[in-house]
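Weekly sync, protein design subgroup
Attendees: M.S., D.O., the rotation student, P.L. (late)

Item 1: inverse folding check
M.S. brought a backbone from last month's batch and wanted to see whether the design step gives back something sensible before we order anything. D.O. pointed out we never logged the input encoding, so this time it goes straight into the notes. Structure tokens as presented (145 positions):
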């Protein structure tokens, strides 16, 4: 399942924004993002996050791994001829030591069951769009003042 949104910014501007937000979380410069690992607690479990793919300005992958699961969140950046770009997001999950968990991830992608996942992805991508375009509106307001 993929969610896509059009953003009224160039693909480089969208890439820079998303990359910088990840760099803030990983507490590093965007150029060193690919080398960083972050350990967080989520739901009582330790989750290790990393960026295994950082192909400017096309593809960025966030890998989240706990003792049972591996989830890859893919961000694809696609230039549009109308001075904007498309941002596409999708997730792929699997069980680390369990075929059953891997099957569960695939079942949750079936049309009747993916409503919650689609809503979560849609909210994430819409918030990215909102903050990118809000940043431009704030810059316009400063220039007018």
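Designed sequence read out in the meeting:
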């Amino acid at each position: 399942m993929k969610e896509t949104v059009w953003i009224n910014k160039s693909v480089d501007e969208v890439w820079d924004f998303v990359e910088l937000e990840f760099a803030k979380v990983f507490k590093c410069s965007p150029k060193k993002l690919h080398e960083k690992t972050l350990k967080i607690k989520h739901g009582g479990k330790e989750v290790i996050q990393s960026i295994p793919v950082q192909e400017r300005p096309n593809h960025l992958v966030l890998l989240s791994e706990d003792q049972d699961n591996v989830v890859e969140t893919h961000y694809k950046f696609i230039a549009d001829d109308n001075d904007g770009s498309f941002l596409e997001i999708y997730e792929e999950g699997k069980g680390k030591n369990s075929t059953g968990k891997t099957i569960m991830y695939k079942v949750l992608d079936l049309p009747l069951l993916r409503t919650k996942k689609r809503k979560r992805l849609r909210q994430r991508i819409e918030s990215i769009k909102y903050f990118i375009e809000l940043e431009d509106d704030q810059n316009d307001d400063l220039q007018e003042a």
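Discussion: The two ends are 44 Å apart (CA to CA). The chain has one domain: 2-144.
Action: P.L. to compare against the previous round before Friday.
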